[in-house]
């Protein structure tokens, strides 16, 4: 199912950033990091096309985090997984994806 009214990655990220600011009270620096990792995730999984969150699955989440562990230091991977958990909770709370992909995210030592 495509996100109604949010057909692009940019629109989803803007909505996520707004959620982080208004609902979670997260500052601009953390929001930038969270949004960057959420954007990287969406682009890695869904590409440049329309955002269809129904295509997100557990293998996508695990694969993205696994690839990140080869590129980033453990502290960055920890931030990435925190950001991805927040993003997936946002997607679920917005009703765009019913699954609980957050449960498959590993915790990583800093």
Summarize the structure.
The chain is mainly α and 110 residues long. It has 4 helices and no strands.
Describe the structure.
- With 110 residues, this protein is an all-alpha fold.
- It has a single domain (9-104), classed as DNA polymerase, domain 1, CATH 1.10.150.130.
- Helix content is 61%, strand content 0%.
- It has four helices and no strands.
- It has helices at 9-22, 28-46, 58-71, 74-93.
- Helix 1 runs antiparallel to helix 2 (28-46) and helix 2 (28-46) packs across helix 4 (74-93).
- The longest helix has 20 residues, at 74-93.
- It is globular and about 30 Å long.
| Proportion of residues in extended strands | under 5%
Shape: globular
Percent range of helical residues: 55-70%
Reported CATH architecture: Orthogonal Bundle
| SS-derived structural category | mainly alpha
The profile of the biggest β sheet is: none
User: Helical stretch count?
Assistant: 4
CATH topology: DNA polymerase, domain 1
Span of the ends, CA to CA:
36 Å
- The top-level CATH class is Mainly Alpha
How many E-type strands?
A: 0
How do the strands and helices of this protein lay out in sequence?
Layout: H1 9-22, H2 28-46, H3 58-71, H4 74-93
Descriptive key words:
DNA polymerase, domain 1; mainly alpha; 110 residues; 0% strand
């Amino acid at each position: 199912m495509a996100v109604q009214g949010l057909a692009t990655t940019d629109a989803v990220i803007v909505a996520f950033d707004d959620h982080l600011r208004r609902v979670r009270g997260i500052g601009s620096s953390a929001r930038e990091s969270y949004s960057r990792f959420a954007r990287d995730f969406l682009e890695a999984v869904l590409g440049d096309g329309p955002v269809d969150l129904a295509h997100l699955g557990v293998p996508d989440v695990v694969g993205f985090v696994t690839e990140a562990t080869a590129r980033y230091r453990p502290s960055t991977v920890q931030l990435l997984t925190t950001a991805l958990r927040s993003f997936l909770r946002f997607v679920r709370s917005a009703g765009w994806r019913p699954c609980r992909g957050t449960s498959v995210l590993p915790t990583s030592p800093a």
